Amino acid sequence: MNVAPDFEAFTNTVNGDQRSALKAQRTIDPSTKRALWPVPIGSTQDIEDAIFAAQHAFTTWSKTTWAARQDVLSLMHAALQAQRENMAKLLTLEGGKPIQFSEMEVDHSLRFLEFNSKQAQIQDVIVQDDDELHLSLRYRPIGLVAAICPWNYPLVLAIAKIGAALITGNCVIVKPSPYTPYSILKFTELVQPLLPRGVLQAIHGDDSLGPYLCAHPRIQKISFTGSTATGKKIMSSSAQSLKRLTLELGGNNASIILPDVDPGVVAPQVALGSFLNSGQLCVASKRIYVHQDIYDEFLRAMVDTVRSWKVGPTSGFVRDLTLGPVQNEMQFNKVMAIIENSRANGHRFALGGDRDEAHPESYVIAPIIVDRPPDNSLVVTSEAFGPIVPVLSWTDDEEVIERVNNDVTGLGGAIWTSDQARAQHFADRIETGTVWINSIEKPLPQAYFAGLKESGLGGEWGEQGLLAYCKVQTIHRYKPAVTI
Predict the structure, then answer these.
(1) pTM score, two decimals?
(2) Mind listing the pLDDT tens digit for each residue in 160-179?
(3) Positions of E strands within 70-227
(4) Boundaries of domain holding 114
(5) Alpha helices in 146-240 (DSSP H)
């Protein structure tokens, strides 16, 4: 008999079993600042047990057929689909998204499972085959993958890693963000009956658990999504055992608006691409460069759009909200510091920026648009990861390209123009891993995703991204000489 899952009780998953702990913590609903449910704090022994289980599971899981693994991912897709409503509510409570955007995150998670379940098997590559030599490349699963996940999109970014790792024959230990552990812990629990023990495990822990996991010699690969500062620490701790790494890090992304667009059409889209999830999106446009010829009209249209949105706490799962709170106190304080810096430096606020806090019981920040602050100001040079966006003007192509590229990060960016040739010219010059043309930043399961400069190392997603979860062996097979 099937038992309905309990969405108010949370455990770690180790070797197929739900495991509690001597210590627990409660994270905060950012809409109310009230504590949510207790979640166990895993120990180093939990990690050791999970690694032992994964090593045992890998010996058989890595040898299952590709088709069998596809079937498992399809069943995982069905299990998540059956709990779409409950999972969306959980995401709203732990992350603060309006319910319709939490549903969108579940839907994107389903798309990643579906995409990976339909991926064709990675074939050996024959480099040379003649009378003397058969030279080939073989792709095989790496082994045990640690997926270390962020708090802004805790379900979809974890499932993207899980889907790619499992289809290629790896075993996975997921470490969720301590701010948003609930959704991925529950997903891991839901799919356990579909998987052999030890193939997929999830452990929530304190600040010591991540470094322990990263330094462990039996973890073969780490896939991390999060801040550049944390990514550098993970890279350092992984150096001793020379782990494979995929690091998807921060980005101070820019949108470039050319003068041939209709501000009334484009500005609302750019506004959504900047403020979606209260700006807590790694590829969100965090700097908007608008050509001087349409600057005033574009700014008015963008301000009018954002002003029309309803912003507030997401408690009650109301559907008329566009923006909810910032997810946690740390991020709230960071955004407030940037706002205060702009005030102190006399920047013009085209929208928002006053000190009145309409929702003191939550981490809601009303959206802010800053009108042409200096290029060296904090609001331009830092990745706020919150609902504050600078809008700047430009006149010369080469000048704006130089300004956009004058940043240590290079994750994504957008270009808006009706001139396709000119769009490609800009895209060729922008130093980012991904460029969107005439679209807000919408990562897709089928599109390889990687950052340049300090925005990351390696990449994931898409057919090419599966190779990030494979090791390569080169086989030189010389053919014996034939004697007569």
Answers:
(1) 0.96
(2) 999 999 999 999 999 999 99
(3) 125-129, 133-141, 144-148, 171-175, 200-202, 221-225
(4) 12-249+455-473
(5) 156-167, 182-190, 209-215, 228-238
Task: Give the up-direction half-sphere exposure of residue 171: CA atoms within 13 A in the CB hemisphere.
Answer: 31
* Per-residue pLDDT reduced to its tens digit, 423-455: 999 999 999 999 999 999 999 999 999 999 999
The answer as to whether 442 is a domain residue is: no
Catalytic residue list: 248
Contact between residue 41 and residue 223 where contact means Cβ atoms under 8 Å apart: no
Q: Are residues 272 and 380 in the same domain?
A: yes
The rounded distance, in Å, linking the Cα atoms of 86 and 82 is 9
Total domains in the fold of the chain: 2
Residues 6+ apart with CB under 8 A from 391: 288, 290, 295, 298, 299, 302, 350, 369, 370, 371, 372
Long-range contacts of 210-214 (CB under 8 A, 24+ apart): 210/148, 210/175, 210/234, 211/237, 212/44, 212/47, 213/47, 213/146, 213/148, 213/173, 213/175, 214/146, 214/148, 214/238, 214/243
Same domain? 273 vs 374: yes
Q: Are residues 87 and 209 in the same domain?
A: yes
Domain presence at residue 278: yes
The two three-digit tokens of residue 170, written as one number: 């790896």
Does some domain include residue 478? no
Residue 217 falls inside a structural domain:
yes
Q: What is the CATH number of the domain that holds 93?
A: 3.40.605.10
List the one residue out of 406, 352, 397, 399 whose CA is nearest residue 376.
Answer: 406
Rounded CA gap, 391 and 299, in Å? 8
